[in-house]
Each structure stands twice: as C-alpha cells, then as structure tokens.
Amino acid sequence: EYGEYSVSRIYVLPGFFSGTGNDEGYIFVPDGSGALINFNNNSNATYRSFVYGKEASFPDTLKKTYNENIHMPVFGMVKNGAGFVAVIDSGDAIAEIVADSKNENQFYNAVSSIVDLRYTYSTNLFADAQGNNKVNASTAYSKISLIDGLDYYTVKYYFLTGSNADYIGMANTYREYLINEKGLEKKVKEPVLNVDVIGAIDVKANFLGFSYFADYALTEYSEVEDILKALNKAGVEEVGIRYIGWNNDGLTNAKIAKKAKVMSKLGGKKDFKALNAFAEENGVDITYDIEFMRFYSGRSKFAVSSPFKEKISFSRYLRSVYATDLRKRSWYILSPEYWEKNFNSIAKSLDKLEVENVSVSSLTNSVYSDFNSKSLNTKQDVANTAANILDGVNKKYTLSGEKANAYAIPYLDKIYDSPAYTSGYHIFDEEIPFYRIVLHGYTDLTVEPQYTSDNRQINYFKSVETGSQLLYTGMAAATKEIVDTDYDYLYGTNYKLWLDDAAEKYAKYQPLLEKIYDSKIVSHRCLQSDVYEATYENGVSVIVNYNGEAVEVDGVKIEEYDFYERVAK
Length: 569
Known about the structure:
By secondary structure, the chain is an alpha+beta fold. 20% of the residues lie in helices and 28% in strands. The strands form 9 sheets. It has an 8-stranded parallel sheet with strand order 26-24-23-20-16-15-12-27.
C-alpha cells in the first residue's frame, strides 16, 4: 500500500479448480445447514456471504430477504468425480465466501473466499421532511486494517478422490480437522427431550402516571417441577431443561449484568435450591442460560460503537414485512472489552449457587467489530475473545451454546437450535445437513424449537433425518400473558399446549435416537423427490419421507410425513 489508496479486500484463488460448461459437478457452501449449487444451473445470482454473519454496523431498517449465517468457515467443490474441501484456518471471522454457477454472464463454476481488510461504512446525517433518512450520507473506511494483529490469513485445501469426493467426504474431512487441530472431542450423552423453560420477562407498568418496566414471572422455580412431573406422567422419561430468563431481570437484562442473582419473582433462593434438589433426585440436568451481552439501558460507553462513534442498537422485525418493529424496545450489546471481566464476575455468583451446567448462547454466535474510543476490536478479535473465555471455563462447567460458530464448537457439550435450513436463495439447488453431519456423534444437537418453528412437521423430520434431539419452548403462564409485550414471539408456548405432541413424538422417535445418537453419519443421499436417507456407522439407516403422500422405497411403503428404520444385513 502506498499513497492515498488502501487495499479493502483480497479475492483468494477465485478461479481455483473452477469448472466449465462441459464439466459436471456441484459447489458446496456452508449457508445455514449447508447448500449445494449445481454446475451450469443458469442462475444469474452470485452467492456471497460473511462468515459468522455481517457487521453490526450495517443496519437493516427493512430486510429484503431472510438470511441464515455461515457458522462453519468451509467450502468445497466436486468436479468430474474429484473434488476439494477448503477450510479457512486463520482470519475466518473477517472472511466471506463467494460462489457462482456458470450462466450467460459468468463463464465458470467457481467457489472461493475473500479476506476483508477494511470495510466501508455509511451513516445518514439528516432526515427529510417525511422522516426518510436519505439526506447527506457520509462514508468512512474502518480506521485501521482489520487484519492487524493477525499473523496471516490461511485457507487449507484438502483434495478428495473416488468415493470420498462428495459432501460426506467434505464433512468427514472437516470433522477430522476439528478433531486434530481444534481439539473437538466426543461428548455425547444419552439423548433427552429438551425443553427451553422461560423464567421471567419485563412488561410495561404504570404508577402515578409514570411508565416503567416491571419483572413478570412466566415460570417460577417450583413450576419447573410441575412441567417435569407432567412430562414424566405423559411418558417422557428422559428430559433436559435449559432455563432461560431465570436470573436478574429475566429474559433480557435491564442493565449490564455483572452477576447472576436468583429472582424473588420466581420464588427466591429457597425454591431455587428445591428445584435443583428435585432435578438431582430425578436425574434431570438443568442448564442455566446466561445472557451477559444484551442489555436495554445503562452507561452507553459500555456498548458496541460504530466507526462514527454511535452506539449501535438492535431491533426486532415485523414478521409480515420484516421492517423494524417500532413498537418494541431496542437493545445494546456489551463491548467485548468487558466480556471476560464481566463473565468472570458472573461465574463467581454461579459458583455460590452451585450451578454446573451453563448455556452461553450469545457468546457462541455473536461476532462483530467494535469501534470504541479506546481501541478497535475487529470481528476476528471478538471471535478470539469468545474462544478464550470458552477455553477458560469449559473444564469448570458443562457448556452449551446455540447456533454455534466454529470457534465455539470444540468447547460445547450441546448445541441448541443447530442450523437445519438455508437462506433459500435461488442459486441453491439442494439443502443438505452438513453442519449436523460434521458434528453428529460428537456433540449433542437439537434443531429449532418445535412450537416456535414456521413448520412444525418439517422441523420434526429435520431432527429425525440426522438424529438430532427434539426441543420445545415452554412456560407455565397462559399464552395471553405475553400479548402486546416485547416477547410475543413466544406466543403458544404454554407447556400444556404441546405436552401431548411432545409425548407422542418422544414415544415414536426416542427408541431410534437411542440407537444412533453416538454414531457418525457415513452416508446421506436423496432417494427420490423429498425422500432422504441417512446411514450411520453402526449400520442403522433412517429414511424420511417429506411428501404429503406415501412413497415406496425398495419395496417398503413409507407413509406421508413419516420415517422408516432399517438395519444393514
């Protein structure tokens, strides 16, 4: 670099192994669960996405599309019976993955990575008379190179041949990479039906004409016992609880959290200890979720900053049009400068409460740059900080995360809401469960919660297809209690509404899950339209029929929306 020009990004081997219109094959990209792009599919779109999600400083007031993030920094290609899988080994958090299928404007089928050395940011200085923020936009580069502090940016290419040249071979190779170079270990336990129990929220209240937010209990400590007893009575013998919003101010911190304090609204210390005693007596693991990064108010100097020194806020979106929901409060994210100090402080209070199982969801899936006045924390710095914290506490607690990014995976015993879908872009030809193929048999996984899923039936079979555990979200309070609150996305999660459904699915699926939970997936294929088969290393195969009508496979009839188990002879 010299003079007035600076390098913003580098395309790394963009044409490597690329295919022409005469070649046959497909491209693998790790969008969400994983997607395949067939050669020469004539899509005019280019796939391009940030590893671990885009920058927090790139706000969307109106989302045009729903996006899944990239959680694993890996991509690959199969061409004419041979292939490769590439792993971004260092600098992964400041990378993008880009792919094209040959079309009238693009002459090659290609996939590669981009390293972003600098980002360009824009802000709106004024609003027009109609309130549209479109006047006098200002642009700025990030102050210093995002690669400062890195030794290098590295992509490792592994070549695949023969029967290994497919996406199963890519998954096997990436798993071995995680084992040999990142310390992934086999941590699976006997499978359970998982329940995310919602403790408390805060709701708008009034006193003498003044509005404020007050804590409101949705599931008290003693009521968790009621949920466990109800499940057991319905025939669900193996249950795992993740208790969310059990401490401090409930689901989201009113102010920055520096300790985990039992809530009197939920029953206080006496009922908290009674719940843990009940769980231990009945062999139930309760995982306590810790949210120390999100907060609604407090000293703004502790929040993440944009390059323009603005404090970045995050909003919920209207599901109908995906515009910012102005009726809901925005929240802030704690600057990574304070993560380690605050988490260590919280850990001391967890030790006093004798908590052993901890969920640190945000720490496992939130990555962004922070341009505070003291120093720049790049996305890579933030990912490294998160990994360092997890490395320091994973021997102290049994850790779990949610939609976990690659830097967090080796430290986790369970991953809730593991990616099961893609962004559904037009360029994609097939959705594959790459994320779960890599980790099945090593880390316990669930897919997204049944009763907050857009399609409960499909979501259930996504679990069955790859041997993932079931997950429900539940509360003891009536559904009406969350209407017109910031938490109305939890509508319909009263546990009595899904109790029978959970018992029915558990009874049918649990016997199969107990056979396959600790086995690697050695084969995954599409047998016919919307019919998939996964085969495990112990010889068990599972065929899932996603069709609304019965199908026949090798002389066996599989009913609509059903699955069939067979064992190799």
